[in-house]
Amino acid sequence: MVKFVKINEGRYLLDVRGYTCPYPVIYTKKVLAKLNNGEVLEVLTDNPPSCENVPRAVKEDGHEVLSVENIERGVWRITIVKR
Q1: Residue 73 in 3-state DSSP?
Q2: pLDDT means over runs of 10, the chain (83 residues)
Q3: What DSSP state is assigned to residue 37?
Q4: With a threshold of 0.90, does the pTM exceed it?
């Protein structure tokens, strides 16, 4: 199940672990559409292709990707600023 939570003011977490592409991209784009410019979205994924597909898709939409980090074995965090 996709989990979307507010971490603190202006910062959100979208957990798409367990989903394969294109779903992480679709869910990320849907959430970004709801955020205000300048807010930060952290996306957690365990699907290696999403580490390339999500950043590419959000950059095409004009958003800024701050980082793609391997935070534990088989899990990555993609940090995005809505623009």
Answers
A1: coil
A2: 95 98 96 98 98 98 98 98 98
A3: T
A4: yes
